[in-house]
Every structure is written in structure tokens, then in C-alpha cells.
Amino acid sequence: MKDFPRDSRGIINWVDTLDRGLIAPRTGLTGGEKMHSVDFDVIFKNTASMPYVRFPHLPHTQWLTCKNCHPAIFLPQRGGNFVTMAAIIEGEYCGVCHGKVAFPPMECNRCHSVARENVGLR
After folding, report:
1. 111 contacts 47 by C-beta, under 8 angstroms
2. Counted domains in the chain
3. pTM of the shown model
4. In what order do the strands lie in the sheet with 41-44?
5. Is residue 85 part of a domain?
6. 19 located within any domain
7. Which of 35, 41, 104 is nearest to 68 (CA)?
8. C-beta neighbour count of 95 within 10 angstroms
9. Contact residues for 91 (Cβ-Cβ < 8 A; gap 6+)
10. Could you tell me the residue range of the domain that residue 83 belongs to?
11. CB 107 within 8 A of CB 9
12. What is the pLDDT of residues 31-63, one digit of tens each?
């Protein structure tokens, strides 16, 4: 993994590694499972004063099948998941992977990347 692309903190950029063809993840334990990549984003707006969070499905579904996350970690419905940073840091929701096998959850700008509609005092 010494030649894998890394971010500014030296953490492996797995999406770039996959895009460059340096790795080819198996579709499951046996390798015969069907992958279904989906290309749409979910925007989380319950972010207090932080920029909104963009969750890009495509890079996640190039690695994992839907059933890895739905419905055990995330309910697949709008407003069905009250995600907090505290829960993520404690290993729930995004924290199931991030901080363990994916970039750490304290890389704020990697997720909090969507400008708020109304900036300023509330």
C-alpha cells in the first residue's frame, strides 16, 4: 500500500485508489455477489452552523452492496436517521467505517462540503 494515493494527512485515499485501478474490491465473501452502484447524493441539513453534509452514494456503492448499510445502519428513508457527530465518533452510522477503514470523521471538510442557504445569525 506504500504507493497508494494519500490525502494531505497521509491517509490512503481509497476512492482514488479504486479509480486508478490499483485495487479491485470483491463483491462479497464469495466474489459472486452482484454489485449495484448508484450515483446520487443525499444532503444532510441537520448540521447546526456547519456546512451541510453531502453523502455521495457512488463511491460507497462501488465498494459495498446496499445491504451493508440498509436497513441495519441507515433506514433508507428521508428523515429516518437522526445522525449526530457524537454518534459517528462513537462508531455509529458513518462511524461504523469512518475512523476504522475509511478516513477519520474529524476530516470535517470531506463531508461538510455543501454551502448553507442562509449564512449568519439565526
Report:
1. no
2. 1
3. 0.83
4. 41-44, 52-56, 112-114
5. yes
6. no
7. 35
8. 20
9. 99, 100
10. 37-114
11. yes
12. 777 888 999 999 999 998 999 999 999 999 988
